[in-house]
Amino acid sequence: MKRDLRDIAIENSDEIIQEWLKEINLLKSVNYTEEISTELYDSNNHEFVNVIIQSIRGNGSTKVIKDFSDRIIQLGWPLSYIIDGLLVFRKVSVNTILAKLEDVDGDIATEIISNVDSWVEPIIRQLVNEYSVSWEQVVSLQRIALQELSAPLIPVMDNITIMPLIGTIDTERAKFIMENLLEGVMRHNAEVVLIDITGVPVVDTMVAHHLFQATEAVRLLGAKCILVGIRPEIAQTIVNLGINFSNLPTKSTLKKGFMLALEITNKSIIETDNKSESIEDLLGIDKGVNEGLENTNPKTT
Amino acid sequence: MNSQSCVSIQKEWDIVAARQMGREIAKQLGFGTVDQARITTAISELARNIYLYAGEGQICFEIVETLEQKGMTIVATDSGPGIEDLSLVMQDGYTTSGGLGAGLPGVRRLMDDFDMESEVGHGTRIVTTKWVR
């Protein structure tokens, strides 16, 4: 009996496809972005319905579906389109098979429905699986990418290191910041660490608390933290919140913080008086010592 | 009150979602950057309290309009353990989680109107409003 129903479906596949295409076209204006061109939509519909038919014909072959799903995920077709398509297919094929059978009683109707379900369900399951796997992959990749960005430490000079923070700080990231900061202070032998919060959108009590803990830990290692990049609105918010930042030196900009850091480390920037000299003359000083320079850069005379 | 939108708070990242939605609404209402920062920070504190102490709850935003002024109301509700001593939590520096203890008193200073009701074992509801100047 089961064989028969499948045969009926396959024999009448042209009719089913026609009906399906009619129905799915009605859905376009309701559900999907108008940006999809009609030609693209049509060609994808044809492909989709052929994949379904092929899969039923092949008695649940997964290879066709896999290839198809890889392609549509790549192209970014919404999952709702796939689900709608399969639900419509289910309805259309049940109707078509019912119409082809002469004497229809209640038993045969349920049998048809359960049969059609058993063809369509594996396809739904597989496609939803493929979609969710691809989403999970994207999410986990982005998580890794975020982690890489989360707390970079840049040594700019002997004993001076900068940690620029961009984006929201959550508990996990706060932990990273602390670890990287302490590890970096040891590794780069830093005396002063500048923490730049220009890119942090909100400084609430939690963020402040984590910053305090991190700077206190840095202080225990014998280094000093300077908090820079405090925007005016952040300053006002901090005052309203009633957080006391007086233990932590702060500066409005990274530049000012860097000048303070130089002061602390007994360094200063001296402008050399080289306006009259050309770059060639400057290089000329090293000429005798560094012959290789001419070989690597033939334009220098 | 003519429109309301809510964000449910269950995960730490929901705090960010609530904050972003709040900032968007504040921007549309015509709050300046400083007030936007104040509102966003207040939302952050309220949402974090829900996440930390109640586990889950909801942050809702309402636009309020009177004849003279319009403003934005934040309603934070949870069905967590509740707060025993309301005046204690409004004290600066009081904390049960090792934080700074500046959250709720801070929110009161960041916003214009502040109202809190809490029943031990049943949850807490905080309603706070900021008016556009």
Secondary structure layout plus pairing:
The complex is a heterodimer of chains A (301) and B (133).
Chain A: H1 2-11, H2 13-31, H3 38-57, H4 62-75, H5 79-100, H6 106-150, E1 154-157, E2 160-166, H7 171-187, E3 192-199, H8 205-220, E4 224-228, H9 232-241, E5 250-251, H10 254-264, H11 279-287, H12 292-296
Parallel strand pairs in A: 2-3, 3-4, 4-5
Antiparallel strand pairs in A: 1-2
Chain B: E1 3-9, H1 12-29, H2 33-54, E2 57-65, E3 70-78, H3 86-89, H4 103-110, E4 113-119, E5 123-131
Antiparallel strand pairs in B: 1-2, 2-3, 3-5, 4-5
Structure notes:
The complex is a heterodimer of chains A (301) and B (133). With 301 residues, chain A is of the alpha/beta class. Chain A has 2 domains: 146 residues, Globins (Globin-like, Orthogonal Bundle); 111 residues, STAS domain (Transcription Regulator spoIIAA, 2-Layer Sandwich). Chain A has 12 helices and 5 strands. A 5-stranded mixed beta sheet of chain A has the order 1-2-3-4-5, sandwiched between helices. In chain A, helix 2 crosses helix 3 and helix 4 packs across helix 6. Chain A is elongated. The termini of chain A are far apart. The C terminus of chain A is likely disordered. Chain B has 133 residues and is of the alpha+beta class. Chain B has a single domain, classed as Heat Shock Protein 90. Chain B has 4 helices and 5 strands, in the order E-H-H-E-E-H-H-E-E. Chain B has a 5-stranded antiparallel beta sheet with strand order 1-2-3-5-4, with helices on one face. In chain B, a hairpin with a 4-residue loop joins strand 2 and strand 3. Chain B is globular. The model of chain B has no long low-confidence stretch (mean pLDDT 90).
